[in-house]
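HUMAN: Quick job: go over this next protein and say how the chain folds.
***
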Amino acid sequence: LGGLPAGDYLFREVNPPYGYNLDLDTRNPPFTLSEDTVDEHQYVYVAAVNSRRYGDLTVRKTVVNADGSPLTDEQKEQLFTFTIVIEGDGVQELGDGGFGWSLDGVDQPANLPNTATIQLKHGQQAVIRHIPAGAHYTVTETPAADTIVTGENHSGTLPEGGAQASFINTYGREPEPGTLTVKKQVTGEGA
């Protein structure tokens, strides 16, 4: 900021970027412009530090029968495969370390890379920890025979409080008819 007269000033950052907090100790750093600094057109450097915010991604698996009957032992033990992709600002900082995670509350020995495959069965949940807020996540289930998959929150931008992706596989439910729209557009001379 050129043209400031000599004096004491306060630097105030009021709106940090999404996914960051203002560091309370540095958000209002004071600084002084002396007569010498102003006369000699010297620079004064002031820094406000922003700390990264993080959240967890929870992936939950539920299996049900369309007719409401209890699950068989085989249905309870069936493994479903999920691919998890985490991309965006701050994810590159992890290097090869990956994300810590747990399965049903038990920490797993190996970290997950930003693209990983896991398996869950009925009633299980995986929690991928310490993902930078603002990162984009996508969770995709590999289709399983004889089930229809429904759910919510499979893709999005991770908020600071974290997100939960839920998948429900229903046995014995007929697929609902869908709609396919086909459009053709011809452009150019002689179209």
